[in-house]
Design a protein that fits this description.
29 strands; seven-stranded parallel beta sheet; about 35% strand; about 525 residues; 13-stranded antiparallel beta sheet; 15 helices; alpha+beta
Length: about 525
């Protein structure tokens, strides 16, 4: 094919051009800087022209396919699809490597135009959403994924393009929609770090940013939770960007070209450190299994990965007609075949899901009523809502402890919500009573269930009696200091089914005095899911 690569001398464009030349395509490198285009073309043994996206696009007619590998796609102005419209007008297939959610989703508006012209128009033919969606489809099989979790983890010695840096910096500290527990929530760019394991046991940390996956996967795959994170190998860079994100949450620092250039200079100073090893991780959690696919690129081949999806698609004899995001535009088998000449290894794993309550209770968990069991089978995020009554103990001591633990105030009837989120260590429970909230973290220890409130950690002797789940406190500590028995609170807490509904009755007595601290009792039911199409 005759293929024009716009931005073909950039970090990813140059690598895509190299792969396409290797596959025997007739490639032309294009961009605003003709000298850079010629230099890249001379190295690859292909042609070069000057082409400005904002200028004349008459040159497109000489090619069969145009690939936009330039960006940053979020900054394409008032007519972001000018290049795609021009390609359709002259009967040229249009592909791009966009990782911007709005740009990628919005290209569907060109579908009728592309269909009428018999042209392929795909946005996001890159690591996301093309490669990530191919992996999700392959991992899920016939099952509906409950949780989709993806991360991209480049090595520090990989070259950094200004467009990619501007895209990430512009998101840092800014609000973004995330689909969590079948509801849209607001999160912030470069937040909520997590660790991922790549082939060979390499562990990297990644932070939440917005890509098309979070916007498009909920409706397409039917998942309850969709997460995406990106990483930086060096801790000084990760936490430095986290500091910048924190500042942008309170101060509207602009991300313009001079700011990006400053970050580029700082990043280049750190370029000799770290490694050229980078990777990608995609995992799917179904009702019964956690399935993952990961890759590790060695010796600096990581920057080729965003070009693999376009290479795989252009190996086909026919391209799909119509316009839309590149979700499942290729298969994972096609992507892996397009990486065979790269220094890349891939790895798959499958493990049974292991929610913490069945793990602690063992066979006794099956003795619980279904309505109770369902509340303790969280795989990503689950949401329960209902109503309850709250009582508070009288006196200075109960009042002080309730303030420390942020227990709700007394009320005869109030709305209550419980959001349970699976973490790498267990589950976080956020309880909301009207406008009042308190949070605890549950995990599994050698002695069984543990529940942590700030610096306080309590051991819970979970037990099933007469079809009810009970939560007695058996031990506790503050930091490393173990509490004597008389300093432990008394927990008279149970979960049960009444009138076909899940009910709870939690009564806590204060340490030492054994006065009533707080008691809240009521019912909960699963919240109805939101609309995955509308963040």
């Amino acid at each position: 094919m005759k293929i024009l690569v716009l931005g073909g001398y950039g970090v990813f464009g140059a690598r895509l051009a190299r792969l396409l030349v290797a596959d025997g395509h007739e490639v032309c490198v294009a961009g605003r800087n003709l000298e850079a285009a010629w230099s890249c073309a001379a190295d690859l043994g292909c042609r070069a022209i000057r082409l400005d996206r904002a200028g004349s696009l008459d040159a497109l007619a000489a090619y069969e396919v145009v690939v936009d590998a330039a960006g940053p796609f979020h900054a394409y102005g008032d007519d972001p699809y000018r290049l795609a419209h021009a390609a359709i007008a002259v009967g040229v297939h249009y592909l791009d490597l966009s990782d911007n959610a709005d740009f990628c989703a919005g290209i569907s508006a060109l579908d009728a135009e592309a269909q009428d012209a018999g042209i392929c128009v795909l946005s996001g033919l890159s690591s996301v959403p093309a490669l990530s969606s191919a992996a999700v489809h392959d991992l899920a099989g016939d099952a509906v994924p409950v949780v989709i979790d993806t991360a991209i983890l480049p090595g520090n010695r990989a070259p950094r393009g200004l467009s990619v840096m501007q895209s990430i910096l512009s998101q840092a500290g800014r609000p973004m929609p995330v689909w969590s527990g079948s509801r849209w929530e607001r999160a912030f760019g470069w937040s909520k770090p997590a660790r991922f394991t790549l082939p060979g046991g390499l562990v990297r940390q990644a932070w939440q940013i917005e890509v098309p996956d979070q916007r498009l996967f909920p409706a397409h795959f039917g998942a309850q939770t969709v997460r995406f994170r990106a990483g930086l190998e060096l801790a000084v860079m990760r936490y430095g960007l986290a500091l910048f994100a924190g500042l942008r949450r309170v101060v509207p620092i602009p991300v313009n070209r001079p700011v990006v250039q400053v970050f580029k200079v700082l990043a280049d100073l750190l370029a000799p450190f770290g490694s050229g090893r980078g990777g990608m991780s995609v995992s799917v959690t179904t009702r019964h299994e956690h399935r993952s696919w990961s890759l590790l690129a060695e010796d600096g081949d990581g920057p080729f990965i965003p070009a693999v999806a376009a290479r795989a698609l252009l190996r086909r004899s026919d391209l799909p007609v119509g316009a839309g995001p590149a979700i499942e535009a290729i298969t994972l088998a096609e992507a892996e075949a397009a990486m065979t000449d790269l220094r890349v290894v891939t790895e798959r794993s499958v493990a049974p899901t292991s929610p913490i309550f069945p793990r602690v209770l063992g066979p006794d968990f099956d003795a619980l009523p279904e309505a109770v069991k369902e509340t303790h089978l969280t795989l990503g995020t689950s949401r329960l809502a209902g109503r309850c009554e709250v009582q508070r103990g009288a006196g200075v001591w109960p009042h002080l402890l309730c303030a420390i633990f942020r227990f709700p105030t007394a009320t005869p009837d109030i709305e209550v919500d419980v959001i349970k989120t699976v973490t790498s260590h267990g589950e976080t429970w956020l309880r909301r009573f009207g406008s009042s909230t308190f949070r605890s973290h549950l995990s599994v220890g050698p002695e069984g269930m543990r529940e942590k409130f700030g610096p306080f950690m309590f051991s819970i002797g979970l037990e099933v009696r007469d079809g009810e789940l009970h939560y007695p406190v058996t031990a506790g500590r503050v930091g490393p200091i173990h509490l004597p028995h008389r300093l432990l609170p008394v927990s008279i807490a149970r979960e049960f089914v009444a009138e076909g509904k899940f009910h709870f009755d939690v009564k806590i007595l204060a340490p030492v005095t054994k006065q009533l601290l707080v008691r809240y009792r009521g019912y909960l039911a699963a919240e109805a899911p939101g609309d995955p199409r509308r963040p």
